[in-house]
Write a sequence for this structure.
């Protein structure tokens, strides 16, 4: 139905897509797989008219087409859900979902009732019960993602391109999304899908195309792949996800939280974090995990309760306070609370620890450059150079820059909120290893992740949050997916 | 290499500037003369100092509409303390600059601690400062300034002191933005304020600094103007903020913050200065001047953005 023939795309002198040909059929879920920076998003953006190919053609229903803008593609029935979410923060959920096709009467008068009703209907398809009147800026990343998906579904497109739609979702929402996708396929819609979650691909995809370094590697029915063979196609060598062996934590308490509360997000949360320990926080979307760790980073201060760092009670009013006390964090909201899009890779990387490379406020350029180069190499960050604006990097590589930024300031306590979101399988293993290294040198890690296997394998202890309450603490040895989930489910 | 890239980024502006200069050199006898070029430099120096100052504010995604009024207020304050043999000449100069700094600091406090939109805060300051200038001067020009001060409107080794001031300010600002931690923080805050806060930057401090610095430079511009016109004019500086902000935006600084350079601002200032001077030399009536100036500015920026996109 939609055919890409020999598509190439260059940015500057960097070729990110080399003569890629793929055919997408109606009623089929076609997964695009590849490492960070392989060109998956770029291919989708070409198909959706956001970028124009340098060479090659796109054929749509047998006709060669040339989209000059996403609007043209959309008008022809091709919609895209972007990896970097693009909500309009001051509009409501309903207004976002029906953006550009608001129900109006002949005079242009907006029919609010119909607007709300239709929005609710699409959210229901995703088993989501958000109030359609909520402003987008008040949503979490996961909720925003659900809204973006609902928006694309609502377009009734014939092809929906989904760029990592589940990156921010927990299992529950994923399940609802998969159900919706299957329904779409039955109606004959073609779904193009990318993800870095392996199990998803095999659950969902009919056919899989693998890209590596901008080149087409293979397209085969999903049933012809095994997880191992898929990975080796993606990476070009054999690779297994390896979780580092847990080094025993020391009994020394570095962080103690007493009855920490911020209504309506979390209440009376009490726990301790030890030197060399990974403490996992599990829970469903909206359980208050992000808000809790944000309080520990001074981003959303708690309204009552105490935080004690190494025996000293502290008040953390803002992230600068937290950093000064040796608490560092990488947030889940890469775009909103992470990158400074216009600054370069280097400038983003050194932003937090810049004071280490200054003398009386003057930046020691050579030193800054040298350290940045070393970090880029260490984290295997794929960029054209240190001066490339970070917004041009692929999502996973942006994430690595943010991790490097935080660690460069050498915090004692490391808070990671969804650290592997949008990160490819190779880089995931690297981050797991990194967490192992951090604890080995005596840092304490607070880990929030919606990927249960990750939390289970990496943590010494796991705290389960449910609707803002800390319901249970599980030792690693005692934790099973069933136990975590049954505690996380709202009663 | 780095310079080259900046240079070509601003290609549109440089192109238009080049054409204007060539055309004016050919079509008028006086444009290319040393005395006229010195004159252009002298004329742009006040707008230049203001533009450099407001570049800092625009980079943080703010705006300062009070420049013109604060120029007048600083000039009046300076002149009031500059009567012959009253105080050492440094006193009125510093008081003028401090007045500007105080206004800027006030703007900054209201924007950061008060959470009021910069447009509103500085719009308020625009009328308040103008009012204060009229109150302090009783609505009349403050004359009888000490010659030591008014002599500062003169030259050193053939170069107007005002031009030296502008050059020095621009150079320092450029080095500051490129090479100082606080300079980097200004770009970060303008680029993504929330992310900057998460990265451990005190957004309040950075913005307060930008507005205060802009105020100090506005005060300096007020003193330079008072010295040149040898009076403190409560009605001076009308709409100066528009030329200053226009120059900065022409130079490629984004009104949304986070992007821009002092080099760009200088080019913007020169473009506006050359247009003004050229139209005067060609004896274009002031009505037409306004139209032509507007068209050239929009055209140059349009060319520039076309270039940047490709
Ligand atoms: N606008 C741009 N300008 C310059 N380079 C770009 C631009 N967009 C993408 N690139 C580069 O193209 C390459 C492919 O990026 P793309 O976003 O398609 O990767 P991806 O496969 O989606 O990765 P991820 O899994 O991390 O999302 C990357 O190396 C990236 O740096
Ligand atoms: Mg991508």
């Amino acid at each position: 139905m939609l055919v890409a023939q020999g598509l190439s795309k260059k940015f500057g002198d960097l070729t990110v897509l080399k003569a890629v040909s793929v055919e997408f059929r109606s009623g089929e879920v076609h997964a695009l797989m590849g490492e960070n920076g392989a060109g998956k998003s770029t291919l989708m953006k070409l198909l959706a008219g956001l970028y124009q190919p340098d060479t090659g053609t796109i054929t749509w229903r047998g006709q060669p087409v040339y989209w000059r803008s996403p609007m043209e593609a959309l008008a022809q029935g091709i919609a895209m859900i972007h990896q970097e979410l693009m909500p309009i923060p001051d509009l409501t959920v309903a207004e976002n979902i029906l953006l550009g096709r608001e129900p109006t009467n002949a005079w242009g008068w907006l029919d609010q009732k119909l607007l709300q009703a239709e929005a609710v209907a699409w959210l229901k398809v995703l088993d989501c019960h958000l109030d359609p009147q909520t402003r987008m800026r008040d949503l979490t990343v996961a909720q925003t993602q659900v809204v973006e998906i609902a928006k694309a579904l609502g377009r009734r497109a014939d092809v929906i391109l989904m760029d990592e739609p589940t990156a921010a979702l927990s299992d529950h929402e994923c399940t609802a999304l998969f159900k919706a996708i299957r329904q779409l396929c039955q109606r004959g819609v073609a779904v193009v899908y990318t993800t870095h979650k392996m199990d998803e691909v095999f659950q969902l995809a009919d056919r899989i195309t693998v890209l590596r370094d901008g080149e087409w590697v293979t397209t085969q029915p999903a049933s012809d792949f095994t997880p191992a063979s898929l990975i080796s196609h993606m990476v070009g060598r054999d690779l297994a996800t390896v979780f580092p062996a847990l080094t025993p934590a020391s009994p020394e308490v570095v962080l103690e939280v007493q009855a920490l509360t911020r209504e309506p997000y979390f209440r009376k949360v009490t726990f301790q974090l030890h030197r060399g320990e990974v403490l996992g926080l599990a829970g469903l979307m909206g359980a208050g995990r992000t808000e809790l760790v944000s309080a520990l980073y001074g981003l959303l201060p708690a309204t009552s309760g105490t935080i004690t760092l190494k025996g000293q009670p502290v008040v953390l009013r803002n992230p600068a306070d937290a950093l000064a006390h040796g608490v560092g964090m990488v947030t889940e909201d890469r775009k909103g609370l992470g990158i400074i899009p216009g600054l370069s890779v280097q400038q983003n990387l050194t932003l937090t620890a810049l004071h280490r490379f200054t003398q009386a406020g003057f930046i020691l350029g050579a030193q800054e450059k040298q350290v940045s180069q070393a970090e880029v190499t260490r984290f295997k960050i794929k960029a054209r150079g240190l001066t490339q604006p970070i917004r041009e990097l692929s999502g996973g590589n942006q994430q690595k820059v943010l991790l490097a930024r935080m660690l460069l300031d050498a915090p004692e306590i490391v808070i990671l909120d969804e650290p592997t979101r949008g990160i490819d399988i190779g880089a995931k293993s690297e981050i797991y290893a990194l967490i192992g290294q951090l604890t080995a040198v005596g840092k304490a890690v607070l880990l929030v992740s919606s990927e249960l296997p990750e939390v289970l394998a990496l943590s010494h202890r796991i705290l389960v949050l449910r609707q803002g309450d800390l319901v249970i603490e599980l030792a690693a040895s005692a934790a099973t997916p069933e136990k975590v989930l049954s505690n996380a489910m709202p009663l | 290499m780095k310079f080259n890239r900046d240079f070509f980024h601003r290609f549109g502006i440089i192109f238009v500037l080049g054409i204007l200069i060539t055309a004016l050199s050919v079509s008028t006898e006086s444009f290319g003369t040393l005395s006229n070029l010195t004159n252009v430099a002298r004329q742009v120096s006040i707008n230049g100092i203001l533009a450099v100052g407001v570049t800092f504010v625009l980079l943080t995604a703010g705006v300062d509409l009070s420049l013109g009024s604060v120029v007048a207020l600083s000039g009046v304050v300076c002149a009031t303390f500059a009567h012959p043999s009253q105080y050492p000449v440094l006193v009125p100069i510093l008081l003028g600059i401090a007045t500007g700094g105080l206004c800027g600091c006030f703007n900054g406090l209201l924007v950061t601690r008060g959470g009021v939109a910069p447009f509103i805060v500085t719009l308020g300051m625009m009328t308040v400062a103008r009012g204060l200038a009229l109150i302090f001067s009783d609505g009349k020009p403050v004359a009888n300034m000490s010659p030591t001060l008014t002599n500062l409107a003169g030259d050193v080794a053939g170069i107007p002191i005002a031009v030296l001031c502008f050059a020095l300010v621009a150079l320092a600002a450029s080095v500051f933005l490129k090479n100082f931690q606080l300079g980097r923080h200004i770009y970060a805050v303008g680029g993504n304020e929330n992310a900057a806060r998460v990265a451990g930057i005190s957004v309040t401090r950075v913005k307060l600094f930008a507005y205060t610095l802009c105020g100090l430079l506005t005060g300096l511009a007020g003193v330079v103007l008072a010295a040149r016109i040898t009076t403190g004019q409560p009605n001076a500086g009308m709409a100066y903020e528009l030329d200053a902000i226009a120059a900065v935006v022409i130079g490629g600084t984004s009104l949304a913050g986070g992007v821009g350079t002092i080099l760009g601002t200088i080019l913007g200032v020169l473009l506006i200065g050359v247009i003004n001077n050229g139209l005067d030399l060609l004896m274009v009536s002031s009505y037409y001047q306004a139209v032509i100036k507007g068209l050239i500015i929009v055209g140059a920026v349009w060319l520039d953005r076309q270039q940047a996109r490709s």
